[in-house]
Amino acid sequence: MTTLTHSSDTLTRDALAVLQPGFHGTTAPDWLLRRIGEGLTSVGLFGRNITSPAQLAALTAQLRAERDDVLVAIDEEGGDVTRLEVRDGSSFPGNYALGSVDDVDLTRAVARELGSRLAACGVNLNWAPSADVNSDVNNPVIGVRSFGADPALVSRHTAAYVEGLQSAGVAACTKHFPGHGDTAVDSHHALPRIDVDFDTLHARELAPFRSAITAGSKSVMSAHILLSALDPNRPATLSPQILTGLLREELGFDGLIVTDGIEMQAIASTYGIERGSVLAIAAGVDAICVGGGLADEGTVLRLRDALVDAVREGELPEERLADAAARVRALADWTRRVRGASGPGAAAQEGTAPGTGTAVVGGTDIGLVAARRALRVTGTIEPLQEAPYVASFAPVANIAVGDETPWGVAAELAALLPGTGTDTYGSGSDAAEVLAAAGERRIVAVVRDAHRHPWMAAVLDGIVAARPDTAVVEMGVNHAQPTGSPHIATYGAARVCGRAAAEALTGRGA
Predict the structure, then answer these.
(1) What are the distances in angstroms from CA 188 to CA 165, 224, 264?
(2) Residue 375: which of 508, 481, 487, 470 has the closest Cα?
(3) How far is 236 from 213, CA to CA, in rounded Å?
(4) What are the respective helix, strand and coil percentages of the chain, to the nearest 5?
């Protein structure tokens, strides 16, 4: 493969412009700053890059010292998927909780507050919201990241989220087009296939994306999924029929199209990241997201050179690469103009619809307010008076959520009832082990997607049979039959969801 040495070459600059790479560390490495100077227009941030808001602001300032309009992207959905608060848990409930409340003004206000925090730290592109309709209740990767299973509900909340986020001056990236909700396979590990008919896809999967486009979403992220009714041969990320024909021409989307992580196995193990990137740009993609796993200079150079070689060999039209690069730069310019505008209506003045509803609550408490409103209690709560024993049942986390972020109710209960004990149990556990550890203390059993994990349901049944006063807190998809006295559904595992549950269990909430 040819490695170009002329950094000023237009073709090389365009190839760099369409990449959204990550890196290691909490300051920008020299190689990244050098590539920004050579034309790289976007940088992706992950939890490993962030320790505090002040550090993040210093990092983004370092990047902008090289290029004032650099796109700084992050995967900050709130709820279970947080990078901004990766070590503490999110201050905002995720989509499933917001959908369960079904108040679009609340969703819009939460998104605006989240966007404001990102903007204050110098982040201007958020790979959110998830517009997937979670029609498969056993979906291993979407679940609580979705607003729900009803296309109309998901549509109205997706639009509200886009409006709220962009009213804070942060570009939304609605994902995972054309819809990742009806999958039983995680595309981080393999290529999912959806075999529903064309009419179902239009009525269900595509509805939220139409709403997002109408709301002015600045970007859309493609999914690494095969939808046989749309393209039986290539996954959406690599499909001209889906990205150019459907998204651009039929749905009329004129913004930036971004891939999901190109190193995910659905692409990497089938096409390879170099070939996959070339096919993606040729299909209509404008930006290649890479860096969740491969976050080094060598990866950037491999992808840059693959794109340049594809143009020179006639496989990728030069005008297609130039168009993609122009779209990246156009979004970068929008974010710079919004950042430079003054007044609370700055984003709206740049063509993004502001939220139209009355603010639900201002300031930093809106996430907790939303989490409290999302709580659903089955049965009667007899408030805990003494320190309980919290048994947390932990499934293996999917890659999008990760295992770095704490979750549960133990820490929040301990703050209210000092002396609270806790242990975490996995798939090899049994009820007798939990009962022995609890002793005479009241048990609070915390589960996550109990309906998807037979081992979890079995242990839970054994505990409740022996101790009917066990309180059960479901922090995932609330699909299993409620059990326990009481049963509390939080609709997500964000830190604020745990606090809302702890308040309810102790009767000490607002």
Answers:
(1) 26, 9, 5
(2) 487
(3) 18
(4) 45, 10, 45
Residue 36 C-beta-side C-alpha neighbours within 13 Å: 25
Pairing of strands 19-20, 193-194: unpaired
Coil, helix or strand for 38?
A: coil
Pairing assessment for the beta strands 421-425 and 71-74 based on DSSP bridges: unpaired
Candidates 462, 507, 504; CA nearest to 487 is 504
The H or E element containing residue 42 is strand 42-45
Residue matched to tokens 């009714």: 229
pLDDT at 398 over 90: no
Question: Which pair of tokens denotes residue 311?
Answer: 């143009």
Model pLDDT for residues 238-271, shown as the tens digit of each residue? 999 999 999 999 999 999 999 999 998 889 989 9
Q: For residue 130, what are the contacts with CB-CB under 8 A and spacing of at least 6?
A: 77, 95, 142, 145, 146, 147, 175, 176, 180
- Alpha-carbon distance 238 to 222, whole Å? 9
Beta-strand pair 376-378/487-489: antiparallel
Residue with tokens 């509900």: 153
Residue positions annotated with a catalytic role: 188, 260
The two beta strands, 443-447 and 471-474, are parallel
Taking Cα atoms as reference points, which of 176, 241, 181, 255 lies closest to residue 213?
255
* φ/ψ of residue 108, rounded to 5: -60, -40
Residue 25 near residue 58, CB atoms below 8 Å: no
Compute, in degrees rounded to 10, the torsion defined by CA atoms 76, 80, 83, 89. Answer: 130
Span 22-50, pLDDT tens digits:
999 999 999 999 999 999 999 999 999 99
pLDDT of residue 106: 98
The whole-chain average pLDDT of the chain stands at 90
CB 73 within 8 Å of CB 19: no
Q: Which tokens go with 497?
A: 């969801």
Helices (H), 48-103: 53-66, 95-101
pLDDT tens per residue across span 460-489 = 999 999 999 999 999 999 999 999 999 999
pTM for the whole structure? 0.92
- Cβ(268)–Cβ(23) under 8 Å? no
Whole-angstrom Cα distance, residue 407 to residue 492?
9
At 395 the pLDDT is 77
* Calpha distance 40→124 (Å, rounded): 16
